[in-house]
Amino acid sequence: MTTTTDSIHGHDLIHYVAEHQPTESALIAHFMAQYGDTLRFHTCSQQNITIEELLTFLKKRKKIVEHGGVLQVNAERLCQH
């Protein structure tokens, strides 16, 4: 069952990664199954971005890193709000 939503904050994805340490493909599959293919995210500085764009954004800023094929949160790089 999918849920519709206008936009999900990127922090929700970060929290999921912190809890589950998924592969990138498993992360995308989870969110697409949960919210459907119209899923969009926003951050403090980005609006209406896809999950792939969000992952690129978070990796570029080293908030999410990949180690051994799984995604992990880099707590030192996260904002605290």
UniProtKB/TrEMBL annotation:
This is Metal-binding protein.
